[in-house]
Structure formats: structure tokens, C-alpha cells
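Chapter summary example.
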Amino acid sequence: MRYVAVPFRTRRSPLSIPFDAIISALDMAGGEEACPGLVKVEPDQGAAQPRSIDHPEETLAIERARHFDAHYVYFRYFPARPSVPVAYIYDWTSSLRQAPSNADLAELQKRLWSSGEVLLTLVLLPTQVLVFHALRGPKEGDNEVVPNPWKTIKIAAGAARSLDALKEFSARRLDDGSFWETNPDVKKLKLEDAAFMSILKEIGNCRADLHDLGVDDALVGRLLILFIMIKYLEERRDRDGTGVFPQGTFQQFAPGADGFIGLLRSGAHPVLAFLDHLAQRDRFNGEVFNLTDKERTLLLDVNLGPIANTLEGRTEGRQITLWRRYAFNELPVELISHLYEQFLPDRPGVVYTPPFLVNQQAIDIAIEQCLMLGCDIVDEVHIARKQYLDGSIPTGFQRTAIVGVNGRLPFRGRE
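The structure predicted for these 415 residues follows.
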């Protein structure tokens, strides 16, 4: 057990089930028989400090949970391999007044669905428990988006039997894998309903539509990668709420454009001017946004409307929706890597990963460590991309590179 047991307080309310009663029904309560996987997410106090230097992945997972304002994380532990966060838990059991609105829950579900961060999210409310799944996003209601829980468990105060339904999600079933293997409802879920797969489908439709309009396919692939990256950067925020592009950036190139989507709808000329702006050396390294003369000429004749509709996240099977389906800033950055590979020529045995996705600080740290170990630094860093599959997460990627070779590590008089 790498974390101390989580203390629970019983909250008294005549209309609600206490939080500790729900956690007990989930086999996650403290005590001698405690499941060690439940970890409380403390309020943000700067960078999280690892509780065990041997398990930094848990610290990172808690930081991500804090990003989503989760109250607890449930980890599944494995022998001789990193633990995996499988569920977020939100505790709003104390009062109906403190419970989020339907709009707030729908926004939370959209963010979690877009990120695919964890498979399960348990939202504990005074009279019910909502279970969200990473393969199911919110849905369109009457003129608004509404939550779309995978399971809704009604809980009556004072009725212990109403808690029995929670046993389906017990810690022991999550830990031994039986939840995933024997639950018939799990088998009904489809990977193509994940946000990652859904947006790839919409991007594929957009690519096909532009191809039907006679747009050069290589240019379409190049533009989609660049524009998705720009949209991703536009919506990303640091802890202070500061974004990559200052307020008013897009209006400099197209009056009235309140964002990148507005810029795309303004036509190709303002977009080309914006790309030239990004291509300046003091803005982004790697010449990512530089276009060839041929690409620049072809771009001026492209109708960018289909791309704007797709990146706005308001399309579903070529139908326009009333709400934004995705939280673009929560989509995994591996989406860009996947598209980069998808749009390049298919060569057997070759996997592409755009080198500009590798963090420069990570390269600098790797070089520093190589020098400390006396390594020979390579002339060129080539990025390899691996994909791993795990029953507890919908998808995962790993990028690796050799930075130095032939190093020496002294150990007990040997090297």
C-alpha cells in the first residue's frame, strides 16, 4: 500500500445516503480490509509531491485528476508494473444545493469523454449515483446538451438494499478484472463511440468531402494536421488560464474573427497570413507552419468551410449539431500523431511520428543525463512511436528516442 488510508466523514442528511456508506458499498472504505487503490485528491497546492519515488505515475495521475476537479482517484495496482487510474469519484452527497446542474454535469462528461483519461467516473449525488463511461459522451436534449450516464443507480435513504446495485462497481471487481470480463453491459460498448474515434471519423468525412470538391489530397492532409494543432493550442490553458494566443490574435488577420474557427470562415487569404505569422522563427521551432510555394497557391482556392465545421465540433455523420460535441483542449495530443501517420504514404513496417510533438525540454533533460553518464550523443534523434493496449484504458501511446549511447554507470566498484 503506497498511500495512507483515506479518512471519511459521515454526512448527516435525512434525504441523502452518507458518502462513507456509498464508499463502503464499493468496498473502498478505510479500515483493516481497506482497498489501497482509493486516493483523495487534495486541493491544488502547487506541484504535487510524490508519496513514493518509485511510483511517479501515480503523482502524474493525481495531477490529471485535479485538472478535472475530481475528489478521488481509484487506482488498479499490478505486480511489477505501473498502477493505472481506472475511475474518478466526485462527492456531492451532502446537499442537493451543492449538487451540480445538468448543464454542469454535461460539460464535465464532455471533458472526460474527450480526454479518455479514465474509463469510469462515479458521480455521487444525494439520491443517486451516475456512472459515466469513456466510451459514451453527453447527448443532445431539447435545445441543450444533457448528461448521458452509462448507469444511473437510484439510492433511497435508509434502504440498505438500494446500495447493493453498487456492488457491480466494487473495488474487488475492478481489481481482479471481473468487472470488465463478465459484465454484459461492458461488452455492448463500442470503441468507435470514444471521442478519439468519433472525431477521427468526422475528420475522415471532411477529407472525403474536400476530395470530392477536387482539393489535392496531400494538401488536405497537411492542412488538417496544421489546423487541428492550431485549434488544440488555441484552447489549451495553463493554471492561470493563459492561452498560447493572446486575446485579439485572430482579429488581427480577420476583423470580427473571435477565434480560429472564425478565421477559417473568413477565407484562405487571412488563414495564409496567420500561418506566415506562426512560421516566424521566434514563435514555433521546427518550421511546422511553413508551406511550400505549391501549397500556398493551392490553399488560396480551397473552401475551408468543411474544415471549420469539423473543428468546431458541431458535426455528427455530416449532420450539424446544436452543441459542441468535444472539449478540444482535452483531446489527447496523440490525435495529431495519429493523423500525421494516417495522412502519410503507407509503407509496410514504417510508423511515423511528427518530431515536433516531442517536448524540447525532455530532449534537453535527456542530453543532460546522457552527459552525466558519459554517453556519446547521437547526431540525429529519430522518434519511434509505440502503441500499447490495456483493458483499463481505451488507447495509449508511447514515443521513444535514442539520444545517447555507450554510457557508463558506476555501481559498487563496477561499470
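To summarize the output: The longest helix spans residues 217-235.
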